Amino acid sequence: MSIASPRFSHFLAIDWSGAAGERQAGIALSLCTAAGDAPRLLTPRDHRHWSRAAVVEYLCDDLPPDTLVGMDLGISLPFADADAFFPGWPASPLDAHALWRLVDETCADDPHLAANSFVDHPQLSPYFRRHGGREGAAFHLAEAAHRRGRFRVTEAAQERSGCKPYSNFNLVGAAQVGKSSLTGMRVLHRLAGRVFVWPVDGRDLPPNGSVIVEIYTTIAALAASRTAARSKIRDGEALDAALALLGSPPTGLSGAIDDHSTDALLTSAWLRRHADDHALWHPRELTEQIARTEGWTFGAA
User: Which of 35, 52, 100, 107 gives 20 to 30 Å between its CA and that of 127?
Assistant: First the structure.
């Protein structure tokens, strides 16, 4: 018996990485179907590890029809707090699509879909916190800036749910998501017009076709009775116990497993379980303006 929404046939979770280099041990893809099977890890055709370019190729050429794709990254930067991504800069983009284009074009010469040129750009670097104590003068520019940096509206919602988000302008520390978000924006720009990105492309889902959403794997862990401090799972037995709480069959994996893989496996099952949750597709604070500029994290209420 299906345990999923009839709108989607497959559920793909992508644990993403903004690290340097072509191949990334930190990228993991997990797929499960609406039929209720156990989630399984996908591997690239020609290598042990995924590259960002290989993920783009998979999403363009091999993605099953009607797949709900969750990408563990920030699909945009804060905008609502200052009515701009980069307040004070005349060339600041006006919406998420323009931001994705700016990131990809600025980093056109960066190999492996990296985003170093963007954060080193003389007009943009002041907005970021970078390594070596280089915190730009505009990192805390907005009056409402959190001590962890500027937040999107969805990140404030994440925090209320028990998560501990960091600003996408922060590029420092183990918890930073800035690098993965910026490299992910290059991917999203290349997918524009090919896969619907919710809610940037619209708050209402199209009647058919695949859809990309932003995910935060800690939300899936919380749904499986983990805490934010214990969100990472690193062995097969603990993974199967968490999957059972999401109504998923066990993977049968045993022993040590890297947490990138377990994050993807657990979150694909979570996507399947919650894909038909009307409230998650219609969060109260998601206005048309926020959808176009900041986007939203699926599951943040």
Answer: 52
Q: What is the separation, in whole angstroms, between the first and last Cα of the chain?
A: 28
CA nearest 32: which of 278, 198, 298, 273?
Answer: 273
CB-based burial label for 290 (10 Å; 0-12, 13-18, 19+): buried
Residues of the chain with pLDDT under 50: 1-4, 143
Q: What is the pLDDT of residues 84-118, one digit of tens each?
A: 999 999 999 999 999 999 999 999 999 999 999 99
- pLDDT value for 190: 97
Alpha-carbon distance values, 239 to 31, 101, 147, 200, 230 (Å): 15, 38, 33, 32, 12
Q: Which amino acid is at 235?
A: D
The pLDDT value given to residue 132:
61
Spatial neighbors of 61 by CB under 8 A, at least 6 apart, are none
Given this model, what pLDDT does residue 91 score?
97
Q: For residue 221, give its domain range.
A: 1-301
Beta strands 134-135 and 129-130 are antiparallel
Q: Quote the tokens at residue 173.
A: 């520390």
SS3 30: strand
Q: Which of 191, 26, 27, 24 is nearest to 104 (CA)?
A: 191
User: How far is the C-alpha of 112 from the C-alpha of 124, rounded, in Å?
Assistant: 21
Burial class (CB in 10 A: 0-12, 13-18, 19+), 228: middle
Domains held by the chain: number: 1
Taking the whole predicted model, whether its pTM rises above 0.90 is answered as yes
Sheet of 196-197, strand order: 40-42, 28-33, 10-15, 67-72, 211-214, 196-197
pLDDT at 4: 46
